[in-house]
């Protein structure tokens, strides 16, 4: 069987990682790369650096990886859809819901595979967590809380922390819980002097009344990527930096000392850190998209799902601007 011909547009910080994985991917040949700004990280290898998406299309590609800045996602994706080229677009899908909807509708109308690079779905810790929740290991789920903090990344210039980092947590929370957001209330801050917000705190509600909290910023000296799911039988803690998943069980031994029992509430039980396989999430994401293009069963983040995430992010920003809870 002939290998799929892949193209990559956007050779920045993320583009270099996509190029590496595409070159390693079985059944795929990276045949063309493009970036009007050149190749700052030297990832093109022996390939010429093409000037734009149209030149990339003319190279005769089967699918494209779109890693350009967010503000160019819509026009780039629409050009690929018009040319009949499948596309995996870095998250967020677009800068706003209007652009995201255009992309989702264009790829669906053309019968093409269109997907969004919400890479946290492919993190081994979160995949294991989702399977365990689906299996009922936690019983009734009460709350999902995420923390995503760290220093400012120089790669980001055209969106704030909500649409960059925050969309990770919005998507992974809805995906892990298998529920949709129904309301959000948020506050943002701008402490670094940039045009966009660099800190957000969100309280949300998912279908069924599940409460979620997200703390996201570009202002912290330490890097933290944590998802905590609390429920009837205890709590799961997923550290997505290390791809570790830990379960803190509610205790089965009664605390007879009344004062301590009142202070602690739910008693402490066993703690288990699971041994799970840890493939690279980016590679898993590309393998899933390759399989989808080939018509095989594959778990990709659809553009319709990417659109829903952008809509929640916009609701978060609207809530922060108006000081109100926004219903979805």
UniProtKB/TrEMBL annotation:
GO terms for molecular function: nucleotide binding. Keywords: NAD. Residues 127-236 form the GFO/IDH/MocA-like oxidoreductase domain. Residues 5-118 form the Gfo/Idh/MocA-like oxidoreductase N-terminal domain. SUPFAM superfamilies: Glyceraldehyde-3-phosphate dehydrogenase-like, C-terminal domain, NAD(P)-binding Rossmann-fold domains. It comes from the Bacteria. PANTHER family: BILIVERDIN REDUCTASE A. This is Predicted dehydrogenase.
